[in-house]
Design goal:
The complex is a heterodimer of chains A (116) and B (111). Chain A has 116 residues and is mostly beta strands. Chain A is built from no helices and eleven strands. In chain A, a hairpin with a 6-residue loop joins strand 5 and strand 6. Chain B is globular. Helices cover 0% and strands 53% of the residues of chain B. Chain B has 111 residues and is mainly β. Classes of the chains: A mainly beta (116), B mainly beta (111).
Chain lengths: 116, 111
């Protein structure tokens, strides 16, 4: 089974702190994604990566950055956390090329971040 | 921009009945659609997908219908069980690895 793990289930940080959210997948997937999930808004894409050291902005990249130094690991960075970044953060991964379900993304359990 | 929307944010059904969750999409160029189920405290899990060259696809107790004429997608769950209680998301893609998700529908099962 594909496994996507996230470093923390719950995180509480103060305004202005630098926050790192880590994601690791064990299936040699090329693609990795970071979403935030807010009630009534569904999942919104922050950043994604098609390959090591490669990143592309999603729909809401402001206030975030990412790092992908190794294929299995994709990090989301909040340079200076703000209260409006309080949310559930979900990491996902998928194969680079269509295999069976073309674009199926496998999700981690999520990190609920509270910024006070 | 692209958007995927759901007609109803909540749906309540009797245990044993069939459930139908609807989704409207706006991008006629989308060629792939997928349904996810998210249980409380968990990440979304894949249910079923369909390509744009198909109208219907069946899985175990689930069926996805695609109507490209009106840009509508639906998920049918047969004989709904308590374990089906969750939030259901549709998502679309247009030839890229990126998915665009709808806002979700919360399905509640009444005993």
């Amino acid at each position: 089974d594909v496994k996507v793990t996230q470093s923390s289930r719950y995180l509480v940080k103060r305004t202005g702190e630098k926050v790192f959210l880590e994601c690791v997948q064990d299936m040699d997937h090329e693609n990795m994604f970071w979403y935030r999930q807010d009630p009534g808004l569904g999942l919104r894409l922050i950043y994604f990566s098609y390959d090591v050291k490669m990143k592309e902005k999603g729909d809401i990249p402001e206030g975030y950055s990412v790092s992908r130094e190794k294929k299995e690991r994709f990090s989301l960075i909040l340079e200076s956390a703000s209260t409006n970044q309080t949310s559930m953060y979900l990491c996902a991964s998928s194969f680079g090329k269509g295999t069976g379900s073309l674009y199926e993304q496998y999700f981690g359990p999520g990190t609920r971040l509270t910024v006070t | 921009g692209e958007s995927v929307g759901l007609h109803l944010p909540t749906l309540s059904v009797q245990e044993g009945d069939n459930s139908i969750i609807n989704c409207a999409y706006s991008n006629s160029a989308s060629d792939y659609f997928i349904w996810y189920k998210q249980e409380s405290g968990k990440g979304p899990q894949f249910i079923i997908d369909i390509r744009s060259n198909m109208d219907k696809r069946q899985g175990q107790r689930v069926t996805v219908l695609l109507n490209k004429t009106v840009k509508h997608l639906s998920l049918q769950i047969a004989a709904t069980q308590p374990g089906d209680s969750a939030v259901y998301f549709c998502a679309e893609s247009k030839g890229a690895q990126k998915l665009v998700f709808g806002q979700g529908t919360r399905l509640t099962i009444n005993p």
